[in-house]
Hints:
Elements: H1 14-20, H2 29-70, H3 78-95, H4 99-121
Amino acid sequence: MNSEQSRPSGAFGTEAVARDVPSAVPGSGEDAQRILQLLRDELDGLDRTLLETVRRRLDCCCRIGLHKRDHAIPMMQPHRIGVVQERAATFAAEHGVSPVFLRALYELIITETCRLEDEIIGVPSTTA
């Protein structure tokens, strides 16, 4: 990463790493490996949380799809997509996260949500 690609200070700066990781003796390979393992363990936990959150979000979207189907509400709600994308853009600006990355991430999530809702809405309601 060159100086033009450096991360902003704060949320992703070295301050976050320094406060959560024990200090090591410079040049100590054993300490460096121990700290790397601690960081990887932290990352693995965050990944589990992220994946569970995505699963819960998709589950909620399926319940929305069922509600839309049962009440004859159109699947496509373009204004809602705009609200979600705008919220992601605001989050990006407030937290120093790439808005391009969050837009791409939400495009993937929204595409999957629409696919699931299409499947659900295409299935006849089982309610009387």
